[in-house]
Amino acid sequence: MEMYEERPPEIFTGGYFDQANIVNQTEGLQDFRRRQEGHLIIADDRPLLVMSFGLKYQGPNPSKYKIEGKYDIPVGFKVIIKWEEDEIVFMTRQGTFGPEFQIVYLPQSPTPEDFTVFEWNANIAEIWDQFLTVIEGKEDRDMRLFNQGPWRTFGVTRDEVQMALKQGTDQKTIVDGILYCADGIEPDLQEHMRYLGVDPATDENILWIFTAFKEEPLPPNFSQYVKDGMVYWVDERTSEATWKHPHYDKFRKMLQVARNQKPVPHWKSIMEFRIEFLLSNIFTWEAEASGDFPLVETVDNVIEMARIFGVDIKNEPYLVHVLKRALRHYGNCVKEKRKVKDVEDFRNLMHRYRDLVSQYEQAMSIEEKRVEKLKICVQCDERDAVLFCDQCKDFFCQGCFDRLHSRGRRQNHRRTWVEMGMCAECVESIALFHCVQCADLYCRDCYQA
């Protein structure tokens, strides 16, 4: 039997795929739970539901488990695809002399027995031809899907599958999903919600979790990239790429806890929930059993507490000690199994600090403007002052001083050359004197002292 000829994927007409509609197509799967358990991939405007990525072959004949010399054939791969209302299941396994394949065709039918099982076969071309022979009678259907050949039809050569094999995804029992990005630049909130696993029926009051997931900065060593409408991340320290968001586990766990605890959608309740979630992951039952409680005032915990209270540490460093105080207080609450509360007290304390700092900055701004005004000649209001008249008690530029003190009693006024800087001692007043011994500038009071 002749081997099938691989053809490049056909380009379907129409605009960019509507991801929501594609996802909805999977709802027709005969076992809806598979959509929750599997790994949904959008390929060529259609859904692929990978139930198992399988593992990379590690035996003595690796070349038999290669496609075109570069793609790995997974062992234990299982995928479900949709063909209009029908389902097609494709599976692989390790055989005696090489990989073996099986196809199950499940047409939509009221008769449960109406399906076709193509037995395990080591010849991919043979089992593929058997399958095509069965479906060729459906002439009213669009057959272009199968022009790509089995590898591309079932997604074996897709980046998601090949990367999962390199990472040993099935071995780690991690089946996450892909964060899609329709505009190719930055995934929006809806795409983050689908990726994290939103349930519209139960998550209406905890939608803030998805917003927090989207807005939380990546760890310093991670960079985000988009390829073919799919998002992946690279750890710059190891150059390792992954389809799994660095914060996926954190927010997935937060979502599950919130579904159980059902916090009220109010800022106070949300803050209490997030604080308890943070600290309960530190003061675990293992730590309680061993009595070895970890340090709570770590850099990462301070940063997380800053996110919860909306503190910009870079521009508000004076609030760090309040955040540490909050960590100590709430850490004791969680350790002693008391309810996290009083968040309003710490929030108000931070507001008071902000008010004090704002008042100080405002006073300093007024003083700076006053000082800047003093640096300008009092007579012309244009040129920098270089002389101070001890009798007039004003600053002048050279020209204005000479003009005003050229005749009359002002000729005898004593003048002082000044460098218009701040006093080196008090750093508040304009310097009027230069000390030869110190080589510093001083205001009158500091110079006399």
Automatic annotation (TrEMBL):
A GO molecular-function descriptor: zinc ion binding
Q: Does the keyword Metal-binding apply?
A: yes
Family annotation (InterPro entries): CEBP_ZZ_sf, WW_dom_sf, Znf_B-box
Carries keyword Zinc? yes
Question: What range(s) does the B box-type domain occupy?
Answer: 372-418
User: Matching Gene3D superfamilies, A to Z?
Assistant: 2.20.70.10, Cytoplasmic polyadenylation element-binding protein, ZZ domain (4.10.640.40)
The alphabetized UniProt keywords are: Metal-binding, Zinc, Zinc-finger
Q: Which CDD domains match?
A: Bbox1
Kindly provide the name given to this protein in its UniProt entry: B box-type domain-containing protein
